[in-house]
Amino acid sequence: MKKLLLVFAHPDDESFTSAATVAKYVKAGWSVDLISATRGEAGSSGEYGEKTSGQLGSIRQGELQKAARLLGISSITFLGYMDGTLTDEPPGELEDKIYKKMEELIPDCVITFDTTGISNHPDHIKLCYATTFAFQKYAFWIERQVTGAPKLYYACVPETVVSYLKRKKIFPEVSFGKPWLGTPDKYITTVISSTGFQMIKKKALRMHVSQKEDVERFLSFPKNPLVQQEYYILRLEGTREIFMSKNDRVSGSL
Fold first, then answer.
1. pLDDT digits (tens, 9 = 90+) for 189-214
2. What local confidence, expressed as pLDDT, does residue 83 receive?
């Protein structure tokens, strides 16, 4: 059985970026596991009203567990970091925990954020680099154990899609103090169609009730490209660096 590991920062990251991909690969017989670095303690509490960070973390953990069951995710590992603090962690701390989980689960594919964190979120960016470092160590280790190289993918949003969604007022012009730019389209290596899985993506997103405002804005636009497709960059295949160029073919599968 093939294995896919998602490494994200907060509850709902998995549904916004990869819900259709997860559902599609679970249906194809893959096992999917998820690492969530935090429980989303610093996010919005939405219709739950004013909550302490601990209460909100418990709520969002429960929402993630419901979404994961819907999508068919086999396990969730919460690393226990506080939302918004990943950049404060000393070098190697986060990387080591992610690597040990990879060593335990032996994934064939790993998905995390791209280097922009998609939305410029500092937690997302930190997790991208931590996961990349952990994957490099894992790939070196696993290539000595088995045949076949694991792959590391970055979930991303093409710059043309970002521009389009900003015009439609789905994305803001500025996110976390920086212009929201997206990833140059020429770097996209993999586009997963959500055909047949759009409803489950929408249902998974709506499991995150505390984030209803963001979710409903995201789903309010019927032609949102990020509901129709999910976008990735193949960053590493084993220990081999992947660099895209205009002549490379964009794949429809991981």
1. 999 999 999 999 999 999 999 999 99
2. 95
